């Protein structure tokens, strides 16, 4: 744990002892707001944002250490753990690096390359790095012909599959290709065959012929594309410019000798990229994009909510609050100018539009409350039946020439809060 505290302290420029003290408080069950407000002397006056950052980084590093231990155990159980491999895992700085190292050892369905290995073609695959031309490989392949590998072509194909899989399992290639995709790839979205049927209102029309570099893509567009894809309205994929794709191919080509087999090597590399590497890298990059978009969106929602909650209060006004509704009626509450609850009742407005007696009864109740509590403002929730309730209030103010104003207020969160334990208390 001391190592984790030190890493977090260095990253956040916070003293190690303050990081350790903060985490101990949180581990003991204290909440971030509680620690920020009531344990300033222990944390060194850290605010909620700093404490949240500490918690996030410590949790990540704890998960990283747990995953390292798990991966070491899993590889060791296969009898394939070497000192070099163990050190690579221990020295990994991020989870993705650990996953890249573990990738070749992960249990997966048997592949064509695995079958080729079982048929004894791995030694032939190794010969691709020592021969000079295709004729030499063809001659060597004759020694690998069996009942399961009936022709020279079958032997060479199996060896190429093995090499392609070996390339796809190299952590350094996956890391570099991922970096290139994160920095240079372009996301392309098009209307699916079902778009006309599923998107009659053209909600996703802006994305029917859409492309943008992912490092420039705004979070709301990332999430919109994801929704369109999930609803089968859009088809989405990533692509690279030809020059970026060529950089990747040339990087891998360097592991092969320079000889007359270059065309064959390029064929192997293309197969490895298109069939094995890029599909999984695309998924990883899309997941990373989504994670970034969600984090950014949450930050925006947080700021919007903060601004909403910190709006200037309505001071020294008696308020008649209406929660519009249909079948269950319009719930009414009175709050006095000191913020105290005074009374509640129910008006049946909307369902009673064709019932003059109920409407008249609602008007009498409304006017009685206005007079009794000297109401200054009527607030109307913007949810179901809001417009009909607004019409009722506007008409009664006009008919009775009341010195009264009304406003529409945002109901967001009110329903959830009203049904909560804390609201009941």
TrEMBL record:
GO aspect biological process, one term: translation
According to the entry, every stretch annotated as the YqgF/RNase H-like domain falls at 317-418
Query: Which Gene3D superfamilies does the annotation name?
Result: RuvA domain 2-like, Tex N-terminal region-like, YqgF/RNase H-like domain
Q: Kindly list any coiled-coil regions of this protein.
A: none
Pfam families for this protein: Tex_central_region, Tex_N, Tex_YqgF
Do you know which InterPro entries this protein is assigned to?
Ribos_protein_bS1-like, RNaseH-like_sf, Tex-like_central_region, Tex-like_dom_sf, Tex-like_HTH_dom_sf, Tex-like_N, Tex_YqgF, YqgF/RNaseH-like_dom
The entry lists its GO molecular-function terms as: mRNA binding; structural constituent of ribosome
Q: Which domain of life is it from?
A: Bacteria
Identification of the protein by name: YqgF/RNase H-like domain-containing protein
- What is the source species? Fusobacterium periodonticum D10
* Upper lineage: Bacteria, Fusobacteriati, Fusobacteriota, Fusobacteriia, Fusobacteriales
